[in-house]
Amino acid sequence: MSDNKNDKKEIRVWCDGCYDMVHFGHANSLRQAKALGDVLIVGVHTDEEISKHKGPPVFTQEERYKMVRAIKWVDQVVEGAPYVTTLETLDKYQCDFCVHGDDITVTADGIDTYHLVKEAGRYREVQRTAGVSTTDLVGRMLLLTREHFKPAMAHLASLRGDKEYTVALDHSSNLGTDSTARSPYTGCSQFLPTTQKIIQFSSGLSPKPTDKVVYVAGAFDLFHVGHLDFLEAANAQGDFLIVGLHTDLEVNRYKGSNYPIMNLHERVLSVLACKYVHEVVIGAPYSVTAELMDHFKVQVVCHGLTPIAPDADGSDPYTVPKQRGCFKTLSSGNSMTTEDIVQRIIRHRLEFEVRNTRKEQKELSLMKSLQKNHIKQNGDCHVKNDSS
């Protein structure tokens, strides 16, 4: 220990979880955890452990490891972290305490996975992000119904307003997407976007005069490893990467069906959490215009190997960057699409429905047990930390 009074002990923070279908809720929890210390270590469970305690994960462990590594607040990922967090694990990685959201995580036997670190006083809590969970997203894909996409395309323009960002709450208690889902953790409330949340996720950086600015655009729905690998490849084309995100109605125009699964504001936060992204254009025009390129001083415009749908008037959306000789087609080496993720869910529909039901039942059981103990002790052993 140095005698220098200015020396400050580095606070190392531990988080762990499944991080399946890594979304902005996970990212927000990790952002809050990082704010409690200096270094954030994140343990990710194996497919085997998740299947044993929760049910089948949507993404493989290798995909989940890669996704968590790309979240900009994460300093280190520990692969194959134990499902029950132990003091030995914290000590091995020299972590001062463990951080988790204010929801309930239990083993297959219904035991609180954080009971050991809680008893030792090495547990901190952060606010869970309302309006999103992996359970909820799985439910959305199984339902694939969005109220604002049900009418004919001719009427879409008249649906701007509150319905534009509303997820249909069909009856599906076992999917955790409506008011009949009884658990406060499995059932999801509506996501309410705020400027504060965007500021918290934003890098706040502007390109330097010498930076080579790269621009890409798309839906980036259900942010996944395919998106991640593409953004990493695009980032390598310059110094400052800007991502244009299309509106929900625009995505529905060129993708059809009931896409996007996640609304524009949810997609903004998911992309902003990625360490390869410096800035996001919210509701970017589908065609890359001269005005957009000049405004952001864009020098390179990239697109992946997926087919490019024409604009509403039938024109090529990349005409301007092609004319300027700055359009690049990138191969990221990953062909995964949002449709592939949806198909994974649909193929294993029954397994995921059972998983969600089991999760809700275990949460309710433990919640009742905790309430009984709370009444007996007339106190709460949790340490609440709202670093949001």
From TrEMBL:
<keyword id="KW-1208">Phospholipid metabolism</keyword>
<feature type="domain" description="Cytidyltransferase-like">
    <location>
        <begin position="14"/>
        <end position="138"/>
    </location>
</feature>
<keyword id="KW-0808">Transferase</keyword>
<dbReference type="Pfam" id="PF01467">
    <property type="entry name" value="CTP_transf_like"/>
</dbReference>
<dbReference type="InterPro" id="IPR044608">
    <property type="entry name" value="Ect1/PCYT2"/>
</dbReference>
<keyword id="KW-0594">Phospholipid biosynthesis</keyword>
<dbReference type="InterPro" id="IPR004821">
    <property type="entry name" value="Cyt_trans-like"/>
</dbReference>
<keyword id="KW-0444">Lipid biosynthesis</keyword>
<comment type="pathway">
    <text>Phospholipid metabolism; phosphatidylethanolamine biosynthesis; phosphatidylethanolamine from ethanolamine: step 2/3.</text>
</comment>
<dbReference type="GO" id="GO:0005737">
    <property type="term" value="C:cytoplasm"/>
</dbReference>
<comment type="pathway">
    <text>Lipid metabolism.</text>
</comment>
<dbReference type="GO" id="GO:0006646">
    <property type="term" value="P:phosphatidylethanolamine biosynthetic process"/>
</dbReference>
<dbReference type="InterPro" id="IPR041723">
    <property type="entry name" value="CCT"/>
</dbReference>
<keyword id="KW-0548">Nucleotidyltransferase</keyword>
<protein>
    <recommendedName>
        <fullName>ethanolamine-phosphate cytidylyltransferase</fullName>
        <ecNumber>2.7.7.14</ecNumber>
    </recommendedName>
</protein>
<comment type="similarity">
    <text>Belongs to the cytidylyltransferase family.</text>
</comment>
<feature type="domain" description="Cytidyltransferase-like">
    <location>
        <begin position="216"/>
        <end position="308"/>
    </location>
</feature>
<dbReference type="InterPro" id="IPR014729">
    <property type="entry name" value="Rossmann-like_a/b/a_fold"/>
</dbReference>
<dbReference type="GO" id="GO:0004306">
    <property type="term" value="F:ethanolamine-phosphate cytidylyltransferase activity"/>
</dbReference>
<keyword id="KW-0443">Lipid metabolism</keyword>
